[in-house]
Amino acid sequence: MTSQLKRTLTRELPQFEGQTVKLQGFVHARRDLGGVQFLVLRDVSGVTQCVGSGLQLPLAESSVEVVGKVKAHPKAPGGFEVQIEDFRVISAATEPTPVEIPKMEWNVNPETMLDYRVVTVRGLKERAALKVQAELVAAFRDHLRAEGFTEISTPKIVSAGAEGGANLFPIDYFGQNAYLAQSPQLYKQIMVGVFERVFEVAAVYRAEEHATSRHLNEYLSLDVEMGFIDDEEDVMGLENRLLGSIMERLKQTCAAEFELLGATIPDVPAHIPRIELMEARQLVTEKYGHQVGGKDLDPEAERLLSQHYAETEGSDFVFVTKYPRAARPFYAHPELNADGSVNGEVTRGFDLLFRGIEITSGGQRIHDYAMLMDSIASYKLKPESLEGYTEVFKYGMPPHGGFAIGAERLTAKLLGIANVRYARAFPRDRHRLTP
Amino acid sequence: MTSQLKRTLTRELPQFEGQTVKLQGFVHARRDLGGVQFLVLRDVSGVTQCVGSGLQLPLAESSVEVVGKVKAHPKAPGGFEVQIEDFRVISAATEPTPVEIPKMEWNVNPETMLDYRVVTVRGLKERAALKVQAELVAAFRDHLRAEGFTEISTPKIVSAGAEGGANLFPIDYFGQNAYLAQSPQLYKQIMVGVFERVFEVAAVYRAEEHATSRHLNEYLSLDVEMGFIDDEEDVMGLENRLLGSIMERLKQTCAAEFELLGATIPDVPAHIPRIELMEARQLVTEKYGHQVGGKDLDPEAERLLSQHYAETEGSDFVFVTKYPRAARPFYAHPELNADGSVNGEVTRGFDLLFRGIEITSGGQRIHDYAMLMDSIASYKLKPESLEGYTEVFKYGMPPHGGFAIGAERLTAKLLGIANVRYARAFPRDRHRLTP
């Protein structure tokens, strides 16, 4: 009889106080006190405590069905418990899990956690991180669609790298040399000629040998490209609105996940502060005494600059603009001088820093064929090797620009996850090809 | 002055009759009659005729800005034309396009069309196909999210094939052997243990040497997996509702694209007809005299069976159920006999036929560890090689099932595109790695 009940989710229990419900889920934890058995049932929406007697509890992670009465219980997680009237094992675990799912913590044996990822990913915090990422990606898409963007799907098997020849994974493509795409850069630019405004959500691949806490060899890239712009300010404006939408959505859908992870959802200012790169380098040196190496910002400079904007403007975000040409790829649009001539030193490229780390590179791209060929020559690249890329610029490409956000890096930074690998279900790194 | 106008899209023109608007877009076609110049401007929303005098028209595909007055003009495409008051070339094409975009047809020199895909993809019909696909994918996601599904992102770099060892593209992964994923099958099953209901939209890879009109070596797979089911009927019910939502959305958003392509959007019955495979084979033989080879349905049988259901029930869709084990992979859930024992011959796998072609394979999967190990043994597979897959079934996986839809194949079939390669922006086939 009771098994004909419609399934109730644990988060819906408050609506059913005093009534009999049917729950389905996994045995998250269990305790047998002789006469009384407790089990914590985990379903997609949360966990709830169930109490019964005379039950043979199966191993943790077994999937089960509980029919019982909902009672308010201030000390139980969620404030309710279910008094078991009927209990059924749907699918019994045949072995204890290699680690106890409710007792895991991210910082304990991280490699072991990844080795057993097929079950450790069921942990509440692990799941929360992936749920936040799914919502973040959904908000990204919904916002862009509302601004007239079209989603595209571009090849990941390519004949050459978009960002140059380094860090490519080789593929044997029916005996031909091919590579995994590092970025949809050139394809999204081509598609601006079709849909004017495009985005893509897809994996990209970087064969970087070094292991850091902020890089993955396979990651989900949230790519945007926008045509008929005036300059990179239009692109930053779009990203500003987009981030606002994403954070608003996370507030609506993921408050519990942020609470579980002890993280806060940032407010996105209506106008994210901007600072030119040269000024930013100077500020970090003058205010914090940090000498910045290289041509752009080093990780410490990124951290200090973010600190400055958090303290002075209460902003977790800052755009660093006007990157030098030496720190940007050949397709970055140069700044123009007042007379319209090309400034050979500075580009219209920008980075977006969030809580001390770069989460986006973006900018205006070169759309003029002659300017592009000049740029290729000055970067000492071979025009033949880029022909597939340059061809389309003969056909009236409008001014355009865009950016890319690494979904895992943004998720990790939002949630305070120290290593980006834990913001991906099944990460790939230098040594890890499984699970 | 007028350049300070906000941009208007061509599809918005009817709202602006008699007013001055600013359009931006590409020169789709042009004609110079001496005193008068006509140009057809193409933007993301459509095309419109613009008329002016004394203009120097740039090459086709140049991007341009037109300011002018909107006038009703029954013979012009869309019923309106713009009388040019101000004209500006935003970015001039530097060469004529290799083919004339407005005069292309899919069936003329298809290889040439693909060679020059970076510009031929701008064609109205080419763009319409990709627009329909983008809407179809968006509707797929929105429907599943509304039914409580979570989007996942699983690895495409894998250590072994999910469907067996054949047809895999090898990757050099830091000197280790790895492959491009054929399917997210095992990962989506694992993730049922986390989110219960999951989906993924991502490219998959098949190293099939043969060139057919229905296969791609890289395609966009719309993957679904659903836990806590009773049997495959729950999965077919979901797919039935999902297709209903998708077609409803296409009616709302893509009517113009279907009209342009001379295609009609199918009605999805509230209950798509189902027929068991053995019965389907018999029907095709008895009604049409077609002897069906192999263990399942051959392409001619698929065509005839679809014809039968179109004629007798007015349905463009039919589920073929209870596939024999010999035609299904090891993870397909067997049918159970009345006493609960395993039927060694028949599975709970199904295909969905649409207008004469299979667009989905799906079914219930084995969730019981012992049953899975038995199945692996009876398929003469090595259990060691599948350990990464089988491990998770020790931990209480609930009954589950799912399916996958090839986005390009469904798009092509919906639109009457004869070759699936034209339903992808940049297709990969046996010989084609560029553009």
From TrEMBL, chains A, B:
Aspartate: annotated segments: 185-188
Catalytic reactions of this protein: tRNA(Asx) + L-aspartate + ATP = L-aspartyl-tRNA(Asx) + AMP + diphosphate
Localization terms from the record: Cytoplasm
The organism's place on the tree of life at top rank: Bacteria
Residues covered by the Aminoacyl-transfer RNA synthetases class-II family profile domain: 130-435
Entry EC number(s): 6.1.1.23
First-listed, main subcellular location of the protein, grouped into a coarse class: cytoplasm
UniProt keyword annotations, A-Z: Aminoacyl-tRNA synthetase, ATP-binding, Cytoplasm, Ligase, Nucleotide-binding, Protein biosynthesis
Annotated positions binding L-aspartate: E163, R206, S361, R365
Group of enzyme by EC: ligase
GO function terms (MF aspect): aspartate-tRNA ligase activity; aspartate-tRNA(Asn) ligase activity; ATP binding; RNA binding
Positions bearing the site annotation: Important for tRNA non-discrimination: P77
Gene3D superfamilies on file: Bira Bifunctional Protein, Domain 2 (3.30.930.10), Nucleic acid-binding proteins (2.40.50.140)
Residues engaged in binding ATP: R206, A207, E208, R214, H215, L216, E358, G406, A407, E408, R409
A cellular component term, taken from the record's GO annotations: aminoacyl-tRNA synthetase multienzyme complex
Biological process annotations from GO: aspartyl-tRNA aminoacylation
Subunit structure: Homodimer.
HAMAP family linked: Asp_tRNA_synth_type2
General function of this protein: Aspartyl-tRNA synthetase with relaxed tRNA specificity since it is able to aspartylate not only its cognate tRNA(Asp) but also tRNA(Asn). Reaction proceeds in two steps: L-aspartate is first activated by ATP to form Asp-AMP and then transferred to the acceptor end of tRNA(Asp/Asn).
PANTHER family: ASPARTATE--TRNA LIGASE, CYTOPLASMIC, ASPARTYL-TRNA SYNTHETASE
Family membership noted in the UniProt record: Belongs to the class-II aminoacyl-tRNA synthetase family. Type 2 subfamily.
Name listed for the protein in its UniProt record: Aspartate--tRNA(Asp/Asn) ligase
Upper taxonomic lineage: Bacteria, Thermotogati, Deinococcota, Deinococci, Deinococcales
